[in-house]
Amino acid sequence: MSTDELIAEVVAASVLSNPHIRGGHLTIQVQNRVVILSGDVPSTEARKMIRQLAWSTPGVHDVCSDLGVVPPGEVTGGE
Question: What is the pTM of this model?
Fold first, then answer.
């Protein structure tokens, strides 16, 4: 397993095990120890927490976040 794959697994496990982060759709990619977060989360607090979890993961050199906030019940996408 590469370092990037290991970092992605650790970040994903941290997010999934956090009871304060529920709902939304999150994609985690890692390239050259840079965590790339994309998708939608239910609140700005969840977005901040996910970024913090990514930054606190050993081996991470940078975090790029393209996370949008979509409160529960709102629909995303076109009609």
Answer: 0.86
